Amino acid sequence: MEPIYLDNNATTRVDPAVVEAMLPFFTEHFGNASSIHAFGSEVGKALKKARGQVQALLGAEHDSEIIFTSCGTESDSTAILSALKAQPERNTVITTNVEHPAILTLCEWLEKEGYIVHKLKVDKKGRIDMDEYRSLLHDRVAIVSVMWANNETGTIFPVAEMAEIASAKGIMFHTDAVQAVGKIPIDLKNTKIDMLSLSGHKLHAPKGIGVLYLRRGCRFRPLLRGGHQERGRRAGTEASASIVALGKACEMAMHNMEAENTTVRRLRDKLETGILSQITHCFPTGDVSNRLPNTSNIAFEYIEGEAILLLLNKMGIAASSGSACTSGSLEPSHVMRAMGIPYTAAHGTIRFSLSVYNTEEEIDRVIAAVPPIVAQLRKLSPYWTDKGPAANPEAAFAPTYA
Amino acid sequence: MWEYSDKVREHFFNPRNSGPLEEANGIGDVGSIQCGDALRLMLKVEPETEIIQDAHFQTFGCGSAIASSSALTEMIKGMTLDEALKVSNQDIADFLDGLPPEKMHCSVMGREALQAAIANYRGEEWSDDHEEGALVCKCFAIDAVMIEDVVTANNLNTVEEVTFYTKAGGGCAACHEGIEEILAKVKASRPGAGETSPPPACPATPEAPKPPSKKLSIVEKIAKIQEVLESVRPMLQRDHGDVELADVQGKKIYVHLKGACSGCMMEAATLGGIQQKMIETLGELVQVLPSSHMPVEA
Ligand SMILES: Cc1ncc(COP(=O)(O)O)c(C=O)c1O
Ligand code: FES
Hints:
Shape of chain A: globular
Number of helices of chain A: 13
Number of helices of chain B: 10
Strand order of the largest sheet of chain B: 1-2-3
Number of domains of chain B: 3
Distance between the termini of chain B: 56 Å
Number of strands of chain A: 16
Largest interface: A-B, 34 and 43 residues
Number of strands of chain B: 8
Number of domains of chain A: 2
Bound molecules: pyridoxal-5'-phosphate, FE2/S2 (inorganic) cluster
Structural class of chain A: alpha/beta
Largest sheet of chain A: 7 strands, mixed
Radius of gyration of chain B: 23 Å
Largest sheet of chain B: 3 strands, antiparallel
Structural class of chain B: alpha+beta
CATH architecture of the largest domain in chain B: Alpha-Beta Complex
Oligomer: heterodimer
């Protein structure tokens, strides 16, 4: 039985064409781009090409606006710390409470260091309130950082509009677009976005390569200081093979953008409808009408996500869950809690995230596999009877909590 | 994903005794705030003999919660209630060939459900006596409540001291920030907090304690030494280790470290922690050494 990979928001398979593009940079083109000799200059040219490929996918005005980093997390940290360092008179960060830990954990630490962090709340569908946002912008705000699309639900945020509003008040705007790049069209030159993070491994490039887009003219302080690589904005010898790979992956993403928004979207919708129509007491989370084309996050009530994943895994199906148990944290996903999803449902959320490699046949197999798994676990659940959920589940089963 | 033992997988994929039990006469409903898991344990107890004739469970939870519930029902069937009450969460974990440290609370939940079900059978009210906190140190499975208790009880001020007493922080160092936060929190709640206090003494050179009012006789001294060892044994036993007094020679106390403790990378830290307690209890400077360091008789 061929395994089915529906966890592309966690990471993606490196495309064979991408592997092929990067391999020579381990062997004949191993040189250091900074060197004068021939070994280096070949590499230098390849980096320039890759920078152009990333620039094209992002719709950036200049290729010098692309800074290669080691991952999305590094780009996020660089952006926010830079804004605070470059504007010492400003001490406030505005973000949302559904960001990736790459932003939220950093912000928690900044709070301990004495900075002020405002996290915008979201409604039941994971949308922010623009009036609340407007009311928070003042001249002590160093930066606004809002994700382009949420990694768990795929919900898309109006970052272009938010950047306009921030820019009108002279406030920097950063977006963590790790999930959005390659899945939806982006054209930075026509926005007021100052900084953007992306990560290679979410778009079929290898792990360990990321980009920080930095608008020309935006004040900046590097995170890593040292050599003059990336014009001194990110020291450290360029990871040439990975950069070449990312360039190739960006080129392919441009090419696949249409399929992503037609074929992949149709398969995602088919999967979601197929599951929802067969199983009671489950619902999709997030802003269903405004989300990434590849993501479906479904809450299965009265059962727990890790148990679902283990049974799916046994059937050769890979997905992920917002349950506490899969993260090793104490709480179910902060994204589900922020949307006010009750915990008997939040623990049972499963995220299916597709890619252009998924096939119709795979989706049919998943649609057939999920209902018996859910039924099997509900049979074990104290909230469930053979006729459906216990009449008043919360009252029928009210355990003593330790 | 977690590294689950084959036994855990087996019990998860083929849970024993799941679903309602019609003739149940003892039911325990408990939940673990740790991960929102919840468990209903149903017992059918024979009134004359108090033997558990049947046990079923229903669980809302992850793989190890379901496996722990299944294991528990298998373990207690045929036991008397008093025997069943002796089943510890470690026994449940052992039955499953171990659980990842983050998942130990699943076995704790099983034990609590058992206590609750037996209390329910006996017509008693069960209340939870055990508070479980967020896991702080993953290397040694030490939670926040335990660290806080030890810090408060022993007036600890540094991460090193916390490592001496609990092992927490003695591995990969990832939890040092978390331990520092607990230290700061406890410190802030101490009487007199807010005044600037001098920096805490370095733990490596414990201040010479005040001389005790009266010199201990050797018998009293050994009794005290035994008392200290008894107090640390439960913690070592959690990790399948143990400690025993080997000999006392002047200011040198020799102990046998057993099982998982002996030779482990934490041996030195464990001995350091015991030594600290000895010094405090005896009121004199002593050295705690492994029995292997005992001078060989000529
Ligand atoms: C929205 C978002 N931001 C940041 C990251 C972190 O990216 P990286 O793994 O490259 O550090 C991820 C990946 O999980 C993500 O989904
Ligand atoms: S987590 Fe505490 S030392 Fe590793």
